[in-house]
Amino acid sequence: MGILGTRWEGEYQGHAIVVDRNEWTKGFRVTWDGEEIARRTWSLVGLGELHASVTLEGEPKEVRVALEWDGIGRLDGSCKVSVDGDVVALKQVK
Predict the structure, then answer these.
(1) What letter does residue 3 receive in the DSSP assignment?
(2) What is the pTM of this model?
(3) Burial category of 80 from C-beta neighbours within 10 Å (exposed 0-12, middle 13-18, buried 19 and up)
(4) Which DSSP helix (H) or strand (E) runs through 80?
(5) Per-residue pLDDT tens for 14-71?
(6) How far, CA to CA in Å, does 74 sit from each of 1, 6, 16, 42, 55?
(7) How many helices (H) and strands (E) does the chain have?
(8) How many degrees, rounded to 5, is the angle at CA 21 between CA 94 and CA 35?
């Protein structure tokens, strides 16, 4: 876990997906190819969900982000992202 933030990165069909959580405010956001597509400004202990949509090949696709608690001893929790129901593999980088 970063002192002021936690970051997960992944890729979906050549598009970069990044989820950043601010440890100070407990807010988090998701970006798609560097553009913010959803933000939550505060959540209890930095957990919760975000929903957004992107356009792929002319079709709207739902992007779902879920930050969940992983139990005692796992302060970062887990981040799960899906695009149109397809799970996106993420790596915690910070």
Answers:
(1) S
(2) 0.85
(3) middle
(4) strand 78-83
(5) 999 999 988 787 788 999 999 999 998 876 666 789 999 999 999 999 999 998 876 5
(6) 9, 13, 26, 20, 34
(7) 0, 9
(8) 95
Tell me the β-bridge partners of 12. 15
First to last CA, the chain: 6
The distance of Cα 31 from the centroid of its chain, to the nearest Å, equals: 8
Tokens representing residue 54 in the block: 């992107």
Instruction: Check if the beta carbon of residue 63 is closer than 8 Å to that of residue 56.
Output: no
Write the single-letter amino acid at 81: V
CA–CA separation, 15 vs 30, rounded Å? 13
Element (H, E) at 10: strand 5-12
